[in-house]
Design a protein that fits this description.
elongated; mainly alpha
Length: about 80
């Protein structure tokens, strides 16, 4: 009997996650559309976005260095990225 209850609970949770994901998907797609239409403007980041903002800056730096043929493309000052 417990296994059936666990399976039902899992099914309910999966349905709830699916609904939440679709809500997020709609918002993310709308945000991306705005970003695509406003080239050259950077996104405003919030405190909880800090880690992804640092990652994006690091990747942009690495890509720029690699594209320009710099030999130090793999070396990044992490303190400067923050």
């Amino acid at each position: 009997m417990r296994r059936l209850a666990d399976a039902a609970l899992i099914e309910d949770q999966l349905k709830a996650f699916g609904v939440a994901f679709l809500e997020d998907k709609t918002m993310i797609e709308a945000q991306q559309k705005i970003l695509d239409e406003t080239k050259g403007r950077s996104m405003m980041t919030l405190t909880f976005d800090r880690s992804i903002a640092i990652f994006r800056r690091l990747m942009a730096t690495l890509i720029e260095r690699e594209a320009s043929g710099r030999t130090d493309a793999g070396r990044v000052d992490l303190a400067a990225a923050q």
